[in-house]
Design a protein that fits this description.
472 residues, alpha+beta, five-stranded mixed beta sheet, 22 strands, 28% helix, binds arginine, binds zinc ion
């Protein structure tokens, strides 16, 4: 409330004095990276995003993407400037309504200088208008925007956001999303969360997707193409939305036979991991030549090649297990990748046992025996594999061996309690391997330093597969 006696001019001068401290040097540029141990330039410093609203228009024929991103955030430092991570061509930036100047720097930084410096704790609305041809952009040698015969896909780890929306691209800064995409009539756009009603006007159809639970930037996906979209529900009523490219050819049958088990698999996983953490679930299979799958939140990305040998419910188990381990509970830094991949692989082992195809003990024995001590497999330390080995098979298989070793050490009762307890303890948040160890020690009442060291941090084959305490 302002007193009427003060003139508007005096008021502006007074608020200016309040906004700028005695020394302008108090305001510093935000860091160009979030300080990740593996990817120091990914993400940025100085602010915390709460919501991304993306309004996009995409032309499959020419790969032209236009967009307006409205980013709601709050500063965490006094800032003279801050960065977003982005590769497309920016036309205009506004910060809290005022035009801001901007420049590009480094491989993927968009440096934004607001008209007036920002005090710590200031709510921000950053509007970025942009356009570009994503397939022509690259950074650090990556170009992970994948064009398809009828559209394109953004789904990769850790780099995928830079090609289609400006962001604070690090899993430590999760936010909610509205993704609205205009595509030519007859083409569909797929993203995370629930689908709001579609609208069509003058040859363009708008698909609007809403994710109102926190989501990491790399788990935010976009697919444009001609898709067959199917719907269903899990036994507890969670809506299922799956989408299949209309051009899957020989992969179509096996892809459908796999994704059609999504509801059954969510139900089964809930028995081990607790209540499914999101309001929708499903996956999509585009007509791409990539070979991986990715646990994009609520809407998993599956390459057709995942179904090259027929139905593959195991990959559905892996990616859906990530919804608890990775998506709801996200890693603090990329070096914590074992929590994602070790547990998603272990869920596949539990599924194998459930299907009568080999128990977790048998699969652990098999992995242990199939890699002799001089196999480089054992030089990868799943607890801190380094950026080059972040997705090495050892992070998955030795990672799951570590989970089995933990189970052997603490016993089934404590193990299944912590398997289910962890996603609840850190729901919608972030946690590290160190946090996991502390939690496992608390739930089991056992010191686990030696076990974690042996299975996750030594660059060598553990002497025996059983619990560490039994062999000491
Ligand atoms: N988190 C994914 C999975 O295990 C791995 C993605 C690897 N990324 C890639 N571009 N190959 O399901
Ligand atoms: Zn995985």
């Amino acid at each position: 409330m302002h007193r009427r006696l003060i003139t508007p001019g005096a008021l502006a001068a007074a608020s200016l004095l309040l906004a700028i401290p005695a020394s302008a040097a108090d305001y510093q540029p935000g860091a160009p990276g979030a300080g990740d141990a593996y990817y120091p330039n990914y993400g940025n410093g100085g602010y915390d995003v709460s919501h991304y609203d993306l309004r996009l228009k995409y032309r499959p024929a020419t790969d032209e993407l236009e967009g307006t991103a409205t980013i709601r955030a709050r500063t965490t430092e006094d800032l003279s400037r801050f960065d977003l991570d982005f590769l497309l061509d920016v036309g205009e930036v506004r910060v809290n309504g005022a035009k801001a100047s901007f420049a590009t720097s480094g491989e993927h930084e968009l440096e934004i200088t607001p008209a007036t410096p920002l005090r710590r704790g200031t709510p921000l609305t950053v509007v970025v208008r942009y356009s570009g041809v994503p397939s022509t952009k690259s950074a650090y040698g990556f170009s992970t925007w994948h064009r398809t015969p009828d559209g394109a896909i953004a789904a990769d780890e850790p780099e995928s956001a830079w090609w289609w929306y400006p962001s604070n691209d690090h899993p430590s800064d999760k936010a909610t999303y509205d993704v609205s995409v205009q595509v030519p009539d007859g083409t569909q756009a797929i993203s995370n969360g629930t689908l709001l009603p579609t609208r069509s006007k003058q040859g363009w159809t708008t698909y609007t997707w809403r994710q109102h639970k926190p989501q990491a930037t790399y788990l935010t996906t976009l697919a444009v193409g001609k898709f067959d979209i199917t719907t269903g529900k899990t036994s507890t009523g969670v809506p299922i939305i799956n989408a299949y490219s209309k051009d899957l050819g020989t992969y179509d049958r096996a892809a459908r036979a796999s994704l059609e088990r999504t509801g059954e698999i969510v139900d089964w996983l809930s028995g081990y991991l607790g209540r499914y953490p999101f309001d929708s679930v499903g996956g999509y299979v585009p007509n791409t030549t990539t070979s991986y799958a990715l646990e994009t939140q609520t809407r998993v990305y599956y390459s057709p090649k995942q179904f090259a040998k027929g139905a593959n419910p195991s990959v559905v188990v892996h990616e859906l297990a990530h919804q608890w381990y990775g998506d709801s509970v996200s890693l603090k830094g990329w070096k914590d990748i074992w929590i994602n991949e070790g547990f998603a692989r272990y869920a596949q082992w539990l599924w194998s046992e459930h299907e009568g195809e080999g128990t977790t003990q048998e699969l652990a024995d098999q992995v242990y025996a199939s890699h002799p001590a001089d196999d480089p497999f054992w030089t990868v330390r799943p607890g801190d594999p380094g950026p080059d080995d972040q997705f090495d098979i050892a992070v998955y298989d030795r990672g799951a061996l570590a989970v089995q070793a933990l189970r052997d050490e603490v016993g089934d009762k404590a193990f299944f309690a912590l398997l289910k307890g962890w996603p609840k303890e850190h729901a919608y948040g972030n946690a590290s391997v160190a946090d996991f160890r502390a939690y496992a020690e608390r739930v089991s009442g056992k010191p686990l330093a030696a076990l974690f060291d042996t299975w996750l941090f030594q660059p060598s084959k553990p002497a025996a597969r059983g619990a560490v305490s039994a062999t000491q």
